[in-house]
């Protein structure tokens, strides 16, 4: 179980939905506040920001490794510094965004990208922290976050099992008492074939904590699959328009997030428990199963044959398992077609 504010996150509770704003505000506070409003309206449980400046995440350099050259990359030809400058959420906006979240009854929190961001967020009294995949090897950051004693959610993208074990151990050694992990594939958008969501079950066994899914794929199918594999948290980038913003292409718009909320709850509810037999709602339909009925009129002392008795619906006659045993037996009385066969009508 993982608890933040008044929300409990566990397999006994519906999936916890996080709307990730990232840079989808496109540099507009007005749009950022609208994202908060629509996330709440769509049914999200929390809104998450990213707290950094380009200077705290990279450096301005003309060296080639500081530029994105992959032709298939969503942000190709950008320098890291310019990309993060464009995508950052100004720190002076945070308080207004968080206040709007409170009014919408949303849990508000953020991913800090260095220790100074944690110090800043502590002044805003955030209830928990998120460690991004690209930061899950940033040990000074892990230590600073753990020392707050607040709940921590960490994405696992780009990390081997060995690396994850080290990071999780380090968080716990430094005071993290409540930890949740998110299965994550850090490509944008993520190919469903690369998601490997069955890993969620294994992660729960290894790390003995709540495990969710940070979804960078298109649509809502992967999120539903994640819930079917035991995910208790779903994080999805959220935008006003897929056509705008640094992360818009792989983010959900309002209707999609609303559907994600609804369908993941259906998936969670449908998981149920290991159970055999008719449920309470099924019992009224038991009468429509098959049983043995008189199919043609039968005289007293006439033999039962495959022509005068049949296994049909409904289920008021003898169980079909007696059918072969009855063939050749004698009727005790005259029986009319449509009569459910009972043992008392048979001479043994």
Describe the structure in brief.
The protein has about 350 residues and is α/β, with parallel strands linked by helices.
**Regions with pLDDT < 50 over 5+ consecutive residues?**
none
pLDDT averaged residue by residue: 96
- SS-based structural class? alpha/beta
CATH class of the largest domain: Alpha Beta
How many structural domains in the coordinates? Answer: 2
- What name does CATH use for the topology of the largest domain? TIM Barrel
Shape: elongated
Strand content: 15-25%
In the sheet with the most strands, the strands line up as: 5-4-3-10-9-8-7-6
**Secondary-structure element string:** EEEHEHHHEHEHEHEHEHEHEEHEE
**SS element count, helices:** 11
CATH architecture of the largest domain: Alpha-Beta Barrel
**Roughly what percent helix?**
25-40%
The count of strands amounts to 14
- Largest sheet, strands/sense/barrel: 8 strands, parallel
The Cα radius of gyration reads 30 Å
Instruction: Write out the CATH superfamily name of the largest domain.
Output: Aldolase class I
Query: What is the straight-line distance between the termini?
Result: 61 Å
